[in-house]
């Protein structure tokens, strides 16, 4: 009999947490037959994969991964060029995580260079543009306002020119609503780029770069809003004998480095860098890790459907099969 524990928690970290002993083969098992209420068929866990390394290509719109009325998550990649326009959000803070390459972020609150591992947040209504090199970044559109939970490691500054070869132009400025989603632009008009970037000289606020703590074998929470928490999770090694169930939140993950086996009541997936996955509310899950692994963790108090086509589907593994994959004690 494989004994494990299930931790049941809530979106609010201050809420009580329950720890329950379970038999693993039953926790992951199929329901017993019932003539009065036949078990339904549940959709298995899925993952969406994009390369974690840079692949040269022309400019393309961001790829939507998860989307609801209160959260959008996208993946964007850019070579050595700019966006076609400046962008202003009417209703959301726009957060990002830099996966690969470098990106110069130019805003009305100053400019700064982002490198792999950097988190940043553009406050609602702040116009911005990007100039990137071999870039991959993840975007989170979250209804304002989003609180930053740690001190910044860097901040934006008034930098002119913001990148080598820059010359001031009249460019388009697009304003959007509805979480900045496709087809939700309100108006697009020309803007004097020099005046836009000079606005930072009169603004007291700056764009902050956050980074997770080193050596933290847990989730390091960096941002929080009324319904969203965003953090960075590091796992050096795990036998996966402690499961977690969120009673009121979806758990969205993006694998940054290392490989891990995600074990859930809806199936088992081997995750590699570039994988996105969503563990629905109420589903127990754990990770079996034999090498250091890092991933982004996004908790959403409301369901966030997957809008991208899945590349992987979870399968069932028996407890003896899982035991063979666990690191030695």
TrEMBL record:
It comes from the Bacteria. This is Homogentisate 1,2-dioxygenase. It comes from Actinomadura fulvescens. The lineage of its organism: Bacteria, Bacillati, Actinomycetota, Actinomycetes, Streptosporangiales.
